[in-house]
Amino acid sequence: MAMLKVTLIKSTIGATPHQKKVVEALGLRKIRQTVELPDSPQTRGAVTEVSHLLQVEEL
Q1: Which of 14, 18, 22, 38 qualifies as a FRET site for 44, CA 20 to 30 Å off?
Q2: Which pTM was predicted?
Q3: Is the pLDDT reported for residue 29 higher than 90?
Q4: 36-39 contacts, C-beta under 8 A, 24 or more apart
């Protein structure tokens, strides 16, 4: 199964409450924290909602 490497690049200060919940649901809490997530439609949708805060690489 393909994986995505997701890194939080920008702070969630100033983001909407919904965007903050999405970032937390992705498992990201601190700037420059990286997580590996399965490449699924659910993950892609969450990443799309906060793409301006993230850096995404396909593994």
Answers
A1: 14
A2: 0.90
A3: yes
A4: 36/3, 36/4, 36/5, 36/6, 37/3, 37/4, 37/6, 38/1, 38/2, 38/3, 38/4, 39/1, 39/2, 39/3, 39/4
Q: What CATH number should be reported for the domain holding residue 38?
A: 3.30.1390.20
**CA–CA dist 26, 54 (Å, integer):** 11
Domain count, the chain: 1
Q: Which domain holds residue 24?
A: 3-58
Binned at pLDDT 50, 70 and 90, residue 42 comes out as: very high
